[in-house]
Amino acid sequence: MTGTADEGNKLVLVTGGARSGKSGFAERLFMKRILDGGIYVATAEAHDDEMRERIRRHQSDREQSGYGWKTVNEPFQLPEWLAITSADAEAAYEGPAVLIDCLTLWLSNELLQAERQWGESLEAERYLEARIERLAEEAGRFRGTLVMVTNEVGDSIVPVYKLGRMFRDAAGRLNQRIAGKADEVYLVTAGIPIELKSREVQL
């Protein structure tokens, strides 16, 4: 984490709706603070041509930036990857710098895996809750700089099917858990980022 503008471990959450500009803002924020390159953790899986094209565009944008990204693909074992990466940093003077894009794609992958095993049951919901808790724990104790991108999915209509409602509710819980541990939380709307954590109302 040499060449950083900020010292010590830091957890940053960037959230927003679809096409809000959150990923671009998260990358710019990361590159401004981490001057000598970092780890980009991608959670998307290419299930169809449209997703493959999205992934290709994101990869191309990172390459054209000229920044020293090291890309890691981790669609499922994200908490475990954070734990291993943080443990590897124990002996180092400074921890790694990591950007994860995005948490809701990871959650979607986990939901589909749970649905295949347990259907739309209480067991699937319990599995998701355990995975969310594990990710929040590992993010909270991560040694280094960690920027996480997520989606706000609860501002639209209520999904008509149960699996969609499970995802929406789980995404809301995930965002709350990470935001609660984060040092900074940014909401990006129409390309404009606002920092929320410093404005939090304590009751």
Report the major sheet.
Answer: 7 strands, mixed
Mean pLDDT: 91
Question: What distance separates the N and C termini?
Answer: 36 Å
Rough outline: globular
Q: Structural class, from helix and strand content? A: alpha/beta
How are the strands of the largest sheet arranged? Answer: 3-2-4-5-1-6-7
Helix content: 40-55%
Percentage beta strand: 15-25%
Uncertain parts: 1-7
Number of helices: 6
- The beta-strand count equals 7
Features:
single chain; 203 residues; alpha/beta; seven-stranded mixed beta sheet; 6 helices; globular; disordered N terminus
Task: Give an account of the 3D structure.
The chain is an alpha/beta fold and 203 residues long. Helices cover 47% and strands 18% of the residues. The protein is built from six helices and seven strands, in the order E-H-E-H-E-H-E-H-H-E-H-E-E. The chain has helices at residues 22-33, 49-65, 78-88, 103-118, 122-140, 162-181, and strands at 10-16, 38-42, 69-73, 97-101, 145-149, 184-189, 192-195. The chain has a seven-stranded mixed β-sheet with strand order 3-2-4-5-1-6-7, sandwiched between helices. Helix 2 (49-65) links the parallel strand 2 (38-42) and strand 3. The longest helix is centred in the C-terminal third of the chain and has 20 residues, at 162-181. It is globular, with a radius of gyration of 17 Å. The chain starts with 9 loop residues before the first strand and ends in an 8-residue tail after the last strand.
